[in-house]
Design goal:
It contains five helices and no strands. It is an all-alpha fold. It has one domain. Helix 1 crosses helix 3, helix 1 crosses helix 5 and helix 2 runs antiparallel to helix 3. The longest helix has 32 residues. It is globular, with a radius of gyration of 17 Å. The termini are far apart. The model has no long low-confidence stretch (mean pLDDT 91).
């Protein structure tokens, strides 16, 4: 069996810039749902297990990210169903890794489901860096050129 493996050029600054922009949009969408959920439980004092809050935050982060990316694609003249499929299909692994990384960081630094001014920047940085190489790879793997 002859498997053809495409070598990836990891030194293309244009692809890093483009994948960074895509990752930033994904991070914005994920953060809205994730932080919003954690903040809601933090200010409402509802007695809900920390793990359940974090799982709900991840789910809400995925939903808001898909919604935001769909809106962005609709503004680029995609048809609705194609926008949803593209938003869901092209970045779902990226969104999951981002969400898990952000919530794991929150858990390790605060015990979980706690937002404070010192932890949010770290969560965002970890959430950005985690899927970035994957997003770069996806751009390069599917022949999106470096120009």
């Amino acid at each position: 069996m002859n498997l053809k493996i495409k070598k990836i050029d990891w030194y293309c600054s244009n692809t890093w810039i483009r994948s960074s922009k895509n990752t930033a949009w994904c991070l914005l969408g994920c953060s809205i749902g994730d932080f919003g959920t954690i903040f809601f439980f933090q200010i409402s004092n509802i007695n809900f297990p920390t793990l359940s809050i974090m799982i709900l935050a991840i789910i809400n982060g995925l939903i808001t990210s898909i919604i935001l990316e769909t809106i962005i694609l609709l503004n680029q003249k995609f048809k609705f169903i194609n926008a949803v499929k593209t938003a869901f299909g092209m970045s779902f692994i990226s969104m999951i890794s981002m969400e898990v990384a952000m919530n794991l960081t929150d858990y390790l630094l605060t015990g979980g489901a706690v937002l404070n001014i010192n932890v949010i920047p770290i969560m965002l940085l970890v959430g950005f860096i985690t899927p970035l190489p994957y997003n770069y790879y996806k751009l390069k793997r599917y022949n999106i050129s470096c120009h």
